[in-house]
Amino acid sequence: xxxxxxxxxxxxxLGGAVGLGATLGARWMLRHQAGVARRLIGKPLGEEALDADxxxxxxxxxxxxxxxxxxxxxxGLGAETRRETLGARLAxxxxxxxxxxxxxxxxxxxxxxxxxxxxxxxxxxxxxxxxVAVVVVGGNDVTHRVPVAQAVGHLERCIVxxxxxxxxxxxxTCPDLGALRPVPQPLRTxxxxxxxxxxxxxxxxxxxxGARAVSLATVVGPFFITNPDEMFSLDRFHPxxxxxxxxxxAMLPSVLAALGAVEEVPFGHHAPTAxxxxxxxxxxxxxx
Length: 288
Description:
With 288 residues, the protein is of the alpha/beta class. The chain has a single domain, classed as Rossmann fold (3-Layer(aba) Sandwich), CATH 3.40.50. It is built from eleven helices and seven strands. Helix 3 packs across helix 11 and helix 6 runs parallel beside helix 7. The chain is globular and about 50 Å long.
């Protein structure tokens, strides 16, 4: 009996040691793969996006104020000209649909995590009251393993702060990092899972706070998966000019809906389930 117990104990210890070794080995492999991916991606685009802030389609007059906050995607890193950044693409499409000029302000910062959103809002002039704000963030939270609840908490505070200025908010939820070809397996699959988890939490928080959410993984993600050479820029991580064109087109319906210009939005767009903070009965007049 004693020998049986000893054998069982030894087996349990061995199994635990094997399990611990496998866990440590997996962590080492993922860290190694992350390092390889970072070296492959590099920083061929630099760390500064093009400055696209101006009044677009000025001839229309009666400008709509559009604010773009978030990370390098929001900033437009990877676009070849300022006209091709996400903010400029959105501004031009919005102007054409409403027949009003659009005054773009970009507060997004390359490399920003959700924790940087509050600083981006705080940096705005105190009297600045944009009609609509577009927020795209989350990818850096995933790659830096920021807890979902923590990342979403920062996004929530950003949304509320913007709504208190009387601004309608549209959030582009975290893209699917599974589309990043330079990232090896199984890291790519884990990144995909983590980014979708964050995106769903962002969506839930956004609509609960009275803002609109656009699932980028749903509305534009398939294009990046099936046409990576066309949709990604030189670093194969950030969108290309065509990638930004697709993304802006995909987000436009919710931006128009946030301004009261349309009522129906396509699949992948999510309407608010509660009134926004500081809501009033006033709406933006879409007539030129």
